[in-house]
Structure formats: C-alpha cells, structure tokens
Amino acid sequence: xxxxxxxxxxxxxxxxxxxxxxxxxxxxxxxxxxQGADKLKEALLKSAETSGKKVLVRRTGCMGPxxxxxxxxxxxxxxxxxxxxxxxxxxxxAGLGGPPVAELQCDLNEHFDxxxxxxxxxxxxxxxxxxxxxxxxxxxxxxxxVLTEMTPSGVIHRVTESGLxxxxxxxxxxxxxxxxxxxxxxxxxxxxxxxxEGDPGAFMDRSVMEGDPHRVLEGxxxxxxxxxxxxxxxxxxxxxxxxVSRLTTALREARRRGLLGNNICNTPFSFDIEIRLGAGAxxxxxxxxxxxxxxxxxGTPKPRPPYPAMSGLWGKPTLINNVETxxxxxxxxxxxxxxxxxxGSERSKGTKVFALTGxxxxxxxxxxxxxxxxxxxxxxxxxxxxxxHTFKAVQTGGPSGGCIPAEMLDIGVSYDALLKMGSIMGSxxxxxxxxxxxxxxxxxxxxEFCMTESCGKCIPCRAGTAQMFTLLTRICSGTGTMxxxxxxxxxxxxxxxxxxxxxxxxxxxxxxxxxxYFRNEYVEHIVHKRCPAGVCAIQVPAEVTA
Amino acid sequence: MNVEVDVKTLVIDEQEVSARAxxxxxxxxxxxxxxxxxxCHLDGLSDVGACRLCLVEIKGSNKLAPACVTNVQEGMxxxxxxxxxxxxxxxxxxxxxxxxxxxxxxxxxxGHCELQTLAQEQGLTHVRLPYRNPNLPVDASHERFxxxxxxxxxxxxxxxxxxxxxxxxxxxxxxxxxxxxIITDLHEDWGASSCTRCGKCVQVCPTGALFDKSKxxxxxxxxxxxxxxxxxxxxxx
Lengths: 546, 237
Description:
The structure holds two protein chains of two kinds.
Chain A: H1 3-18, E1 22-27, H2 30-33, H3 37-51, E2 55-60, E3 72-75, E4 79-81, H4 89-95, H5 109-113, H6 131-136, H7 141-149, H8 152-162, H9 174-183, E5 190-195, H10 204-211, H11 213-227, E6 231-237, H12 241-256, E7 272-278, H13 287-294, E8 318-322, H14 323-335, H15 337-341, E9 351-358, E10 364-369, H16 374-381, E11 391-396, E12 402-405, H17 415-420, E13 429-434, H18 439-453, H19 459-476, H20 482-498, H21 502-506, H22 509-517, H23 519-527
Parallel strand pairs in A: 1-2, 5-6, 5-8, 6-7, 9-13
Antiparallel strand pairs in A: 1-3, 3-4, 9-10, 11-12, 11-13
Chain B: E1 7-12, E2 15-20, H1 25-31, E3 55-58, E4 64-66, E5 77-79, H2 83-99, H3 114-121, E6 138-139, E7 145-148, H4 157-166, E8 171-174, E9 181-184, H5 200-204, E10 210-212, H6 226-236
C-alpha cells in the first residue's frame, strides 16, 4: 500500500457515493440499536429499493445525542431526524428531494453548534466495518505520510508540540511519554491501547472503538513507529462485545490492505496488533494492573517506579495510552501540532469527548474544546436539567472524581481547574444531578463501587473503602453520629495518601468533594435525621419514654 | 584491581548514612538501626509494597513513598517518623484489626505476633472503627498445620515463600477487595492440596493465621530468619 493507492481507494469510494443522490445515515450505536435501529435500517433499505430513487442507506457509529435515538441523518442537506422507528422509513424515503418530514425533524443546532469534532469527526459519517469509508475521509493518510516522510523523532516532536495530554484521566503529557519510551533501551518494545473503560456513566471510548475503530489502529501504528515498537495490544473489556467485533474486523481489513503487518508501505517498519479481553475488573484500567492482566497474571497494580515506559509488558519498554489519546494522533499528524495547540485552554489543549448523562435533556456524547465553561456544556449543549427541577451538581471523572456545585459552573473545563475544584478530568464521564439527588447517597454509591472494585492488595484501599462504605451507610440510614463523620474524614485522608495505586488514592474524592460543597446534607442526615432530597429512607426511631 | 562501587549518601531522620546504589530506603534504614514498621516485607522474599506501613516522607515530594520498594538516591532526605506517618500507620493498623476477627487472648500467636507487636509500638490502645466480624472458615484439613482465615491479614508472605523459595506455588489469592482470601491450589482444602508440607509458610506468617497443630495452646514463636540464610547458601552453591 502506497499513498497513491490510498488515494485511488478514496477516489473510488467518493465516485461510488456520488452515484447516489441521497445518503441516509442510520446511527446504530448501542443506544439507538437498543431502540430498534437495525429494524429501521432494514425498513429504510426496503423503501429505498422500491422508491426508484438513488439512495444509499448507511450504518454509522454514534451521532451524539443518544436520548433522541434512534437517529437518522439525511445527506446532502444534513437533515436530522430523531426518535425514528421502522414505521417512519417509507415517509423518510418519500420525503427525499422534497421538504423534510416535519414530525421527525429535530432542532439540535444549539447542541451541535458549540461542539468541535476532532476525535468524533467520522462518527455518524462512516460505516465502522468498512475500511474504505475511513480511507475516503483521509484515513491512514497520516500513517503513510509518517512512514515515508518523517523520522520517529519528528513524529514525537509534532505530538509534543500539539500539547496533547493523556485522555485516560491523568493528563500526563503524551509527547513526553512517547519520548521516554523512545529513549528506553530494549530489543523489543510494545504499544498498548487502554480500552478498559470502567467508570460508571462513561462510554466515550466504547463509541470511538465501535464507531471509528481504524482511527485507534492508525494512532497506535503511528505511536509504534515513533517509539520503535513492533507489537501492539488493545486491551478491551469483554463487556463491550460490539467494540471487540468491530476492532477484530478492522484489524483483519487493515492487514488485508497492508496497513498492518510486515513492511508497511514498503518500508522496514513492521507492526501488528492483538486484542486482549479484560474480564471485568475496574482496576485493570490502572496501567501496571493492565500489564499484569495482558501477561495472564492476576490484575493487581505494582508500585511504580519502574514505570511501564522502562519496564512494562514482560519487562520491556511499553507505551500505554488511552483510546481517545490514540484517536487524536492522526488529525494531529495531518493538520500539524500548532493546529491542535491553538485549540483549548492554556495548559489543556485540543478537545475532549464527554459522556453526558444523568438528569439532563440531551444525554449522549459531546466533544468540546478544552476551556469551555461547564455551564455551556450543561445548559446549552446538554439542554439543562428537566423542567421543574434545579441543577445541583455535576459529577466528573467517575469514581475517582468529585461533585462540582452550581456556583462553580462558570469555570472552564481543564485538567488543572477540575483538580482545583476537588474533582478530576478523568476519562470524561459527566453525570448531571438535580435536586432529586442526595449527595451523601451519591458519595455512598461511588465508594461502594470502589469497594467492590478494589483488588485487595493494599490495606488502605481494601479495608479503608469498606469502612468508608459502612460509615456512609450509617449516615444514609440516619444512625450516623458526628463522630462517624470525623472518622470518615480521617479514613479519607489515609486512603488517599497511603493507597498503592490510583484507584485507592482517588477513591475518597467523591466523599471529600461532597463534604466540601454539601456538608450541610451530611449534617442534616446526622443531626436532623432528614434526607433533604428525600432519597434516603431514614427510619425515625420511636421516642423512648421512661 | 579497580572495583567500582556506586555509593550514595543520604539523610534518614537527620542521620547521615551511606548506601550502595540499588539498595532500598528500608534496607539502609535498618542497617543504621532506624526502625520502620513493616508487615508484608520479609527479608529473603520479593517486595510487593502492599501493607503501606513503611511509607516514609521524602523531602521535595508531597507523595509518601513505600520504603521497601523505593531505591535510595544521592542527597535524599527521608523522614520515617512524622505526625503524618504516625497517623496513617495507626489508621492502617486499626483497619487491619477491624477487618477480620483478631482476638489476641485466644490466639496461638499471642505474644509472638507481628501485628500485635506493631500495635503496641504504635501505641494503639483501642480501635475506633466498627468491627466487620466476617464469618470466615478455619481450614484444619492438613495433618500438620491449620489455616485460620480469621487471623489472616493478606500480607501474601505465604504466597511468596511458597512460590519463590519452596517453588511449589500452592498458596494464592482468591477474590478481590474486602472478599480476598488466601487459598491453596484452586481453593482445595489445604490437606488435599499439592502442599509439600515444608512448613515455610507457617514460619513466615506474621500472625496466628497459619500455625502448627502441635503448638495449639502453647507458645508459638515463629522463626522466619532462616530465609536470608537459605538464599545466601543457595547463591553460594
């Protein structure tokens, strides 16, 4: 495969598509599929056949606003239809060329206008199982350019220049990580993609792997060239069967096209990728535990140093990045580091994909430039909390993150700002809560998650989260005392400072941040035996009289 | 002949000490009679950094570092006994006492227990946390030894000594989080397992979780000091 051949493929796909007058794109991501998108696609195909019009019906990945699904977008006019069912197929096809079907049309301009799509640029436009669709949208161009025109250090320089930081949560500078692995000495090096997305309410990585799998493979191959690795692993959780099957298809197609394997693009560079399935342990998203799991051992973290960049898989230098980080690489290579650097805030560059969930009108996937105000994400893009309710807090970063109250919504989203507020960027889950959520109960939920997901290796996390859960359960049930609250705060401090890995060190964050901003709710539960949101069932003990 | 030795000098608790490159803070501290509490560490076994009792403060870093797996560096300034560390050690010990059923008065290791000794050293007079009182089994199926899971602190010394020294790897960990448990083979009874009956695990167990049946009700001191000697002799061979 050479760049000329790549362009030929792209041209022939564009020619094929030009033969159609209309393109009907059906979102078949999980949320839409679960509401009958596959039947809808069948119906659309049937109606298109009998209509006599030249219509291309295409399956695509996630279009974004999942709560409006199943979604259909008709091109070239970009008409978006929401809540479409198989019964609507005939009307949609009949309406092609005329005015759009009014009853299905949805106005989500506000939702889309403030978004900037880099990682999700192909989501909703390509069939994830067709490599040619990806190639037609400049896919693999970056890889072949890198292999034929750039040195590995040139690639690293470009990534460093972009200011990209790890999208898995920690925000470690990607360029620095790459150059460390590149400098590490070893006859064999590995590149690993962390697709073990486990935060409750987070589904960004799943959507990328399912909707645009080649983007991840291309990013990994570029990384492998830059750091000198010959083999890659994608670690995906087995709970994502669709992602696994899409990735498997993508790998097969990329190998067939000669974009993976030996002597890619007739250069000495050889690279291939294997998929490894996670067995459902949250802790395996921690890099040392992930390595242990890939090696076939029990998934428990190890103290660092040595860092995986020096001694990772089977003791070899290993580069581990998150799905979304790899998904950013090809556009950075294509458009240049400065292009990426010019988006975002001072110390957080580019865009970030968030999974917007909870008490909000437009749940789904959004991609926004870093530095955007939380208020804009929640009120403009998300459409705000349901009518009649008031916004209370937004939880970011999953079980390692914290709750941010209404008075802080005007702060721009960046790694540093979120950390300052007692939360973290995390992988990008964003759970919106209104006045029907009890913050003590929310903290209890996340602590329970960390307790059951703790690997059990170190004492502060294993026993500490369990004790925190017991104390929070007491407070929620109205039997807690102010002494319990004191003890809880002391436990939080030890679990945070003394735990071995990131899971334990961040497990107290949901408690600490709710204590910081919603302490009165804790006190209400303890002193007045009352749950302000009416969530916790508190049994008021009968007055004991002598 | 010129033999190059890479020597580092550092400060531990305001005491200037020297060390070979590659030594851990714990090794160097103990060489100089500076005591750092440990539970999962045992001379002669690999380190896992799991008990978090040996955490120390290093000047210039806000993060606490486990002394058993942190290598010395030139000019390092280490504090092993600050208020912050004492507070965390206390909570960690409390967590251990509340996690399972540690009742010293009826334990074979009473008076010889590392957990008990540490608690005494740290001045732990009571536990503020709610006791979990889990219902755990006692495996007495082995003809010579007994495993009482009520007293286990999951330090994994038995797992490591069996895998690394005896080479049998009979012990391992099952489950995760608060439900983790030490098991023999694939959760078979100890007596029916592939145990070689060497008894090393009993000697390295810091509490009364693994004990010799013949010692019930009497003093049961343990002698884990054979390990470094054994390693030395094996290397010399």
